[in-house]
Amino acid sequence: MTKRSAGLAAIPHTTPDPARAGVAALPATLAIEGVSKHFGGVYAVRDVSLTCSEGEIVGLIGPNGAGKTTLMNLISGTLTPDQGDISLGGVSLNGASPADCAIAGIARTFQNIRVFHRLTVRQNIEVAYTTYLRHRAHKRASRSIEEIMELIGLAGDGDLKAGTLPYGKQRRVEIARALALAPDILLLDEPAAGMNEAESVGLIDSVRAIRDQFGCGVVVIDHDLKFIMRVSERINVMHMGELIASGTPDEVRVNKEVIEVYLGTKSAVS
Ligand SMILES: Nc1ncnc2c1ncn2[C@@H]1O[C@H](COP(=O)(O)OP(=O)(O)OP(=O)(O)O)[C@@H](O)[C@H]1O
């Protein structure tokens, strides 16, 4: 048995109880305040402020190059802001590494799927669950790996190699792995990309179930506007690095600037 598989096999499939550890979970709000990031002469993100609290599903949309992924990279510690503050539950994350951000309570998925192809679905999730047990179990209750797989539509797939799964299921493996950290805030970067209509409708239910059962906040980016409009309670719209609108799906749908940005047609966002 390899060192890795020995470690993975040792992980208990039970749910630690933070109350037993004597630490009460505090409500956490992700707060982004006046954040900017430029690459050479290009402002990828300019003076953006927004929030996402536990229990909220917040959408982030904008045309190609609007700055959405850069903002997600800033929130998750992959990039450092040139200006502004990013905090979770009042604790600054400025300068925090991706690992620090994950331990602090921010988990994410990626635009281009990054599952461990040769590991099984269960092992992919266990990798993150190990981090959860080491660093977050005293802060927040989680679900067992089997419960997470069930919730995300992977029940029965645990022993399959992740790389052999169809695209939509690999996306679900990524989400399950992020959830295994029991995050305060879950960042989903284009989760519906490559999914057919039925799959993206199913994903709406999954995202809501995640919010309801984990109590985390969810920030979701997607180009599938039908999906974003249906899943989000609030939507932020970016264009050329700036936040140009913020509101409920109904408010954003009729916002003039948003309509102009989306090909100048109302039908694109309705
Ligand atoms: N590492 C980088 N180096 C140079 N420029 C970058 C880098 N990352 C992003 N940019 C630029 O920053 C701007 C915002 O890019 P970003 O990928 O954040 O947009 P996006 O809204 O996520 O786009 P898409 O929807 O196509 O993924 C673009 O002009 C992009 O070319």
From TrEMBL:
Pfam families: ABC_tran, BCA_ABC_TP_C
GO MF annotation, one: L-valine transmembrane transporter activity
UniProt keyword annotation of Nucleotide-binding present: yes
One GO process term, biological-process aspect: L-alanine transport
InterPro entries on file: AAA+_ATPase, ABC_AA/LPS_Transport, ABC_transporter-like_ATP-bd, BCA_ABC_TP_C, P-loop_NTPase
Gene3D superfamilies: P-loop containing nucleotide triphosphate hydrolases
Organism superkingdom: Bacteria
Keywords in alphabetical order: ATP-binding, Nucleotide-binding, Transport
Record domain ABC transporter: where: 30-265
Any one Gene Ontology cellular component term annotated for this protein: plasma membrane
Keyword ATP-binding listed: yes
Matches recorded under PANTHER family: AMINO ACID ABC TRANSPORTER ATP-BINDING PROTEIN (PTHR45772:SF7), CONSERVED COMPONENT OF ABC TRANSPORTER FOR NATURAL AMINO ACIDS-RELATED (PTHR45772)
Name of the protein in its database record: ABC transporter ATP-binding protein
